[in-house]
Amino acid sequence: MSSLAIQSAKPVIRRSLAESLLTCSVFEREDAEYLAFGSAFHSFAATYQLHCKALGEETSLVDVARLANEAWHRTPGLLHNRWREFMQLCDDFAQSHRAGLDTLMHLEHTETLDVGWAILTCTIDRIDRADLGDPDDEPRRELDTDWKTEQGEMDHAFQASWYVQMRFLKHPSLDEVIFQVDSVRDRYRADPLTIRRGELDLWWKGMLVALRERWEAPAAARVPTGGPACEGCAHRFNCPKALAVAREVPETEEQADELFEEALRLEQAFAARKSALEIFYRQRNDRVVAGHEVGFLRPRLPHLRVTAKPLELRAWLNKRHMAGDSVLKVDTEQLRQSAIQQKLVEAGLATQEFSRPSFKWRHHVPARKARDQAREKEQE
Ligand code: SF4
Q1: pLDDT at 356
Q2: Domain assignment of residue 357, yes or no
Q3: Share of the chain above pLDDT 90, in %
Q4: Are residue 72 and residue 215 in the same domain, yes or no?
Q5: Residue 163 in domain
Q6: Do 69 and 110 belong together in one domain?
Q7: Average pLDDT for residues 54-58, to the nearest whole number?
Q8: What residues form DSSP beta bridges with 182?
Q9: Is residue 228 part of a domain?
């Protein structure tokens, strides 16, 4: 693990600050609890893998609880009722990640780059050699991994570009860098991004000019612009340009619960209004209201309904040098019976998989059962 020790009059600009400043020059990072949670996890992940390295072992599960607990207690700004969640996340990480000692080069590696007017920095969670070359030579290809404790779809293009270009500029032997986001909470790995030397040069040049302009702009010239940075900005509750969503993001579980209950009420109100409009338009033609077509609308375009049998279609495509097999899909509706599914899995013809978690809400099964039981009791 490397630490950042820079003595310079130049400003030190981290990747996250640069990304936000480029969106809005008035941005100021909020001291949010979830950032501390992420820091604690990264601290655990690095020390755990360093510990494995010291032992020369790919895993060391017996030490996970101690290392996780230590990481938790050395991180300021945490909400202590999330300790169990943190311990579980660290345990899941250790269970699902080997230390990868054969290729490991760095953990929590801080890269710095002097660009004349500022010092740019970033911390890369893990760097692996990816060229199978002589370990005594500098690598020509490497894998940079970024562990994310957040969930949901997020855009990491800026982060990837910043990290990778800094690696290229500081390490002339590198020809290619693979950037991999590893979402540790839902164990989802996005497709790795492969970037070759030179691909980012034009972007980097323009980005540095824009960053310097934002950084050096006099206070009077700095105006809020709104944008994706708003959700992590300390001004989001009173800034006139803050995105409406950013103003709503709760800070505590109590606020989140209140917002959720309000969302449930609005959902019911919306469903009632939609049903009422549907009844109204049953007897009328559709109309244009407030920039929307409303009523019983015919689709804008027809859809294709294949009338041939699947094998006829396949033969027709193959004859025309197209991939006939690609149009034949197994209809999983036909295989709904769990007994058949089990047999397919046993035969190695199928696997049971969860899709990636997505944000939604649904009824809590134990609560629903308890409600049903209470109702039955009342009726007895
Ligand atoms: S809340 Fe205002 S100051 Fe903060 S990033 Fe958004 S627009 Fe800029």
Answers
A1: 81
A2: no
A3: 74
A4: yes
A5: yes
A6: yes
A7: 96
A8: 147, 189
A9: no
- Considering the domain architecture, whether residues 80 and 204 belong to the same structural domain is answered as yes
pLDDT higher than threshold 80 for residue 129:
yes
| Pairwise CA distance, residues 77 & 43, whole Å | 14
Q: How many domains does the chain have?
A: 3
Q: Which atom of ligand 1 is nearest to the CA of 28?
A: 4
* CA 159 – CA 279 distance, rounded (Å): 50
Q: Could you identify the atom of ligand 1 that is nearest to the CA of residue 230?
A: 6
**Ligand 1 pocket, 26 CB below 6 A?**
yes
The answer to whether the CB of 14 falls within 8 A of the CB of 122 is: yes
Q: How far does residue 228's CA lie from ligand 1's centre (Å)? A: 9
CA 229 to ligand 1: nearest atom:
5
**For the chain, percent of residues with pLDDT exceeding 70:** 98
> Domain for residue 377, yes or no?
no
* Cβ contact 243:231 at 8 Å: yes
Residue of 235, 238, 248 to mutate, ligand 1, most atoms within 8 A of C-beta: 235
49 is in which domain, residue-wise? 12-219
Q: Please tell me the residue having the least CA distance from ligand 1 atom 6.
A: 230
Same domain, 52 and 84: yes
Cβ within 8 Å of residue 322, ≥6 positions away: none
pLDDT for 250-270, tens place per residue? 988 999 999 999 999 999 999
